[in-house]
Structures are given as C-alpha cells and as structure tokens.
C-alpha cells in the first residue's frame, strides 16, 4: 500500500488566507464521518509549530498521522514540480496505517499561480481571503481558475477591508465557469458544511 | 573520457534540479550554519563547499557512487547492498541519512523500479530491497545504479553526483542567505576544480575506505534537528 491507494486532498492558497483554519474544520468532520485521516502541513517553520499542529488534533488523530514537511523555501515546488517528499510522507502514513482513507496536504502559503500536481492531490482546494482584495478572482491566477473548488474565506472581514462580496461572486463565477466556489468564514464555521459536501461528493464517494 | 550523446544527456538529467527526488528540501547542515551566523559571505561559502567536497562528498559519497556503479555493472547485488550498508553506517546525523534515503527511494521509484533495462540480479534486486526496507537505499547508491544502467562511466557518474550536490547546496544558500546570483556562480566556478579533484581521487577507492571527517558539519546537522528555524529537512 502506498500513496496511490489513498485519497489525497490538496489545500493551497496565499499566506494567511485560512488554509490551516479550514484544515482544522475539515478534520473533525471527516473523522466524525468515520474516515481515517492523515494530515501533512508543508512549511512549518519550527518544531514548535509541528507540536502545535499535533496538539490541535491530539484527540482526533494518532500522532503519527500528523506530519510536517519542509520544502526548502520552495512551497510551490513541493506541491507541483517535485512532490516527492510529500509523497514519501504519505507512503509512511500508509505503511503505518494500512486502512487510511484520506490524506489532507496543506501547502505552504504561496502565490496565485500555485497549483497541485495531480499525482499529489486527487482534489485541489484553493483558499483565498477577501482581505487580500476583491480583485483576486478576476486576476485569473491558475490557483483560482484550476482548483477543483475555490474557497473564498474570511467573509466576515469584507466590510472592514472595502471588499464587495457581490463583486467577488460575480468575478469568481466568470473566471471559473461551471466550476464551484464557496464563501466561508472558517472562524465561526459558516460555509464549511458546503466545502465538506463537495469533498464528500467529489473525493470520498467518487 | 568520452561519452555518447545519450549518456551525456542522462548525466545532465541526473545532475539537474529538475529531477524530482526532493533535492531542494535538503541543505545537509547548511541551514544550521546560516542559523548560527557561521556563513556570511561568498568566501565562507566557497570554503565550506570545498570542505564538504574533500571530507564528505569525495571520501564518502563518491566512494559509494563508484562502488555501486561497479557492483551494478558486475550484477553483484550483495556488493551493492554492502555499499549501502557502509554508507548508512558512516553518515552520522539522522537528518542526513533521512534526506539521502528519501531521495534514494524516489530515484529508485522513478528510474529503477519500473525500468525495462534492469536485470533480475541487480536493478530489480535493489529496488525490491528498498521497497521492502531491507536496505536503506541511499541516494548515491541508487544514483550509481541508474548511471551504470544508462551508460555513464564510473567517473562521469561521480562527477554528475558531486556537481548536483554542490548546486543543491548553492541553491539552498541562495534561498537562505543574501547571496546574489553572480556571486553564487562565482563560487560554483571556483569549486568546480575541487569537484573534479575529489571525484578523480576517490573514483577507484575501495568500499572499505569509505568514511567522512567533518565533525562541525555533523554537529550542525544534529543541531538542526532542534533548530529555531527550519525551512529544510536537513
């Protein structure tokens, strides 16, 4: 059993957009649904960060199903051109837990061009924040246009940063065509159920 | 030393950072040198790389590449695994061993395990042994196998490996420190003769001579395990 035998969800997006917050919302739900889940965080900066990450899932996941992967200051390389170290970490998960159902791979924060290698992620979510500017979708970055699901997070901040959610919705619909996008506020959990529905439908029941 | 076009291109491919074996995640202690302000300019970097080449890459990894290449050429799996075991034993810092074995496993998966040119007594044998965790599968060992399979001479294999080690570390230095691209190329130019010197000196060395003497580098590698900043796996 190896990385090819387990479902893999990639979560990418710029620094501070809410990728980790989304992972923290997704994991308890997937565990609650009965799935055995592994989590890989790219670009933790210190062992202290790794410990914080393990602590946050201490009651949900075995410690050896939470792993940090350093990508040598090249987050996009780690998820796109050369995902070998992430795949190696998934191989280690599956060796220790042969019944593993799904692995969430969180990319280090990157730019709007970062996309997941399809051999690393069966399903790719790209997380942006309204606080990064309402014009992010219409810039048509490959992350925004190619992701299986675009997640527009921190909707609660929109009035404080002069971001118009209607503009973001219109532009996201235009640049993504028929591909889905979801508004979320991972802080209070709104919109997260819709993300879970997509993941369940497109990855786990596929 | 002459080579055909196919082998020449293989050498370029194996020495290219485009090869997807995770080389960009390894700094082999360099990150810790920079964390501790021990590398401040191009001269420091030049001296460190020359020391790596003379004390680690030459007497340790080049010996492994060369002997793995010879073992593969002779179809001697037992000898190949002995090279791997020896390299594992003389690589002191845990993270150095992990970076090397992870990259080795990925190179094996990419270019040995599914390779039509493999033979049952060597290529496939080492791929199975790595897959079954019965041998560590260090990168220089797998590199020697791949290079032999694809027609590189032993010296060419050692040169390609040592060169890619140097450019990997220079890339890491550029991402970690404040080095300009022209300065990095200048360092590369000046250590290139040391690459040749180290490879020519150790290409015929017996596996029993394989050893490294780089105590500070090893200490840096071990301190990196608990480093305050970690962008690299080693």
From TrEMBL, chain A:
It is found in: Cytoplasm. Pfam families: cobW (PF02492). The keyword GTP-binding applies. Facilitates the functional incorporation of the urease nickel metallocenter. This process requires GTP hydrolysis, probably effectuated by UreG. Signal peptide: none annotated. One of its GO terms (cellular component) is cytoplasm. GO terms for biological process: urea catabolic process. SUPFAM superfamilies: P-loop containing nucleoside triphosphate hydrolases. This is Urease accessory protein UreG. Keywords: Chaperone, Cytoplasm, GTP-binding, Nickel insertion, Nucleotide-binding. Belongs to the SIMIBI class G3E GTPase family. UreG subfamily. It comes from the Archaea. One of its GO terms (molecular function) is nickel cation binding. Homodimer. UreD, UreF and UreG form a complex that acts as a GTP-hydrolysis-dependent molecular chaperone, activating the urease apoprotein by helping to assemble the nickel containing metallocenter of UreC. The UreE protein probably delivers the nickel. Its main location: cytoplasm. GTP binds at residues 13-20. HAMAP family: UreG.
TrEMBL record, chain B:
The keyword Chaperone applies. InterPro entries: UreF (IPR002639), UreF_sf (IPR038277). It comes from the Archaea. Transmembrane segments: none annotated. GO terms for molecular function: nickel cation binding. Keywords: Chaperone, Nickel insertion. This is Urease accessory protein UreF. It comes from Natronococcus pandeyae.
